[in-house]
Amino acid sequence: MKRIIVPVDFSNVAESAFTFALEIASRHKAEMLLFHNFEVPVVESQFFPINYMDVYSSLEMAEFDFFKDKVAELRKIAESKNLSHVVMSHILTDGDLLYNLKDVILREKIDFVVMGTSGAEDWFENLVGTNTGSLILNVDIPVLTIPEKTDFKEIKTIGFTTRFRDKDQMALENVLRFAKTFNSKVKCLYVKTDNSDVSDETIEKWRTRFGANDVQFYIVYDNDVEGAVDDFLVSQEIDVLAMMTYKRSFFQKIFHASMTKKMAQNLTIPVLAFHE
Fold first, then answer.
1. Phi and psi (nearest 5°) for 119?
2. Rg for the chain, CA atoms, rounded
3. How much is the pTM?
4. What is the residue-averaged pLDDT of the chain?
5. Structural domain includes residue 274
6. Is the separation of the CB atoms in 110 and 4 below 8 Å?
7. What's the CA gap between 218 and 190, in Å, rounded?
8. Is residue 48 part of a domain?
9. Number of structural domains, the chain?
10. Beta bridge pairs of residue 113
11. Pick from 110, 111, 127: which is nearest to 174 by CA?
């Protein structure tokens, strides 16, 4: 991991993501790229006769000054956490947020995304139904989402949900590399329902392959997938949940409203998503 991008809108949510990104960048000796995007309002000429370029230039300058001041504040946060050694650059774009972000990720050869998501009560929709979710489901690099009001703490245990598919193995290898920098334990969860088609032989092959990495496997027999994941997060004290993106329907099951009261009201577990 050499380059990390952090979309920032200078809200409390973005500040939490920035703090997480600082810690990750420091441990990976990676560079951080702060990304901010703004949209120019559409103006009808018949109602707004002023020259378009004058309007655009004034908005662009105002955004640039705002961005410059806020970046300085973020650098002070880095200093206060003794992380000012992390190399940071920044980029300001205008137009469609998702398009510009994906363009920058490709152009700047970004390896990892850290971004905030807000609203514990409507957390799933903020994760999957908006720009954050669109990015998770449409980029080929890992995306770490940080819920609102989540302070960084040592990542002791990383949970990984799996279906024991071949493509999941590469994701688990990436999780192990990520875990190594934090000296974290990795615990894998497979929820076996009545319709599951994973054989005991396949599970044993995974145990053999990843046994040297001290990966723990939890096979839970339950038709209530979301409930089983919920119990796993709480009982195993998971600090970060890693998973493949799969499809939107899978996220809907995992983050359904039936999550426990504790999780639904105050979700503070970051999610590390890998593209399928």
1. 90, 90
2. 21
3. 0.80
4. 78
5. no
6. yes
7. 6
8. yes
9. 2
10. 5, 143
11. 111
